[in-house]
Amino acid sequence: MNSPAPGTKQAVDWLDQPIACAGCPDDVKPEGRCELMKACVRDRSVQRIAQFFSWNPAVANDYLKHPYFEVRACAARHADVFHLRTLVDDPDETVRWAAVMRLPRSFLLRLIHDPHREVRIRVASRLSEQDLGVMIDDPDYYVRLMVAKHLPEHKLPLMIADEDPEVRRTVARRIPREWLGRMLLDSDPVVRMEVVRRLPDSALLSLVRDADWRIRYEVAARGNREILQLLVDDPDSEVRRHARERLDESGPVHMIDFMGRNGNGHES
Question: What is the value of pTM for the model shown?
Answer without folding.
Answer: 0.77
